[in-house]
Amino acid sequence: MFLGTRRFSYTLLIVLFSAATSVHAQERTVADGVFTEAQVESGKGVYESTCSACHRMREYRQVLRAFQNNSVMVLWDMLVSSMPADNPGSLADSEYTDIIAYILSEQGYPAGDTPLDPYNGMDEIKIIAP
């Protein structure tokens, strides 16, 4: 009887460890629909009026590769602290967020139902290269 209980305990530990490992392995990425179409539309307008004079959309493929495995929050912080070059941090937080949504959309990542939000989980969403 004791041997059966020990086997059951080992089996239970293996199952629990496997479940914990698989939950950890399922990180959210930019490929998981982490922004909305509304953010893309808003971001497109801000990008065209604020960013497009200096930046071409095709540049962001390399930018996303450079930020590979970092959180979207790291990219957001970089944008806020350095853009626009003549007045960093001058846009609203939502405008920076919407610009990122637009960039991600233009690189082929899908929109979803939940808005990208720098104050709610954006630091847990990983960038994967397009």
Describe this entry's structure for a reader:
It is built from 5 helices and 2 strands; from the N terminus they run H-E-H-H-H-H-E. It has helices spanning 2-25, 37-51, 59-66, 72-82, 93-106, and strands at 28-29, 125-126.
Structure characteristics:
mainly alpha, 55% helix
Task: Give a brief rundown of this model.
The protein is mostly helical and 130 residues long. The protein contains five helices and two strands. The chain has one domain.
Strand content: under 5%
Count of distinct structural domains: 1
Structural class: mainly alpha
Give the terminus-to-terminus CA distance: 55 Å
Mean pLDDT: 86
Please give the largest β-sheet: 2 strands, parallel
Spatial arrangement of strands, main beta sheet: 1-2
Element-level helix/strand string: HEHHHHE
What order do the helices and strands come in, and which of them pair?
Elements: H1 2-25, E1 28-29, H2 37-51, H3 59-66, H4 72-82, H5 93-106, E2 125-126
Parallel strand pairs: 1-2
Helix pairs in contact: 2-5, 4-5
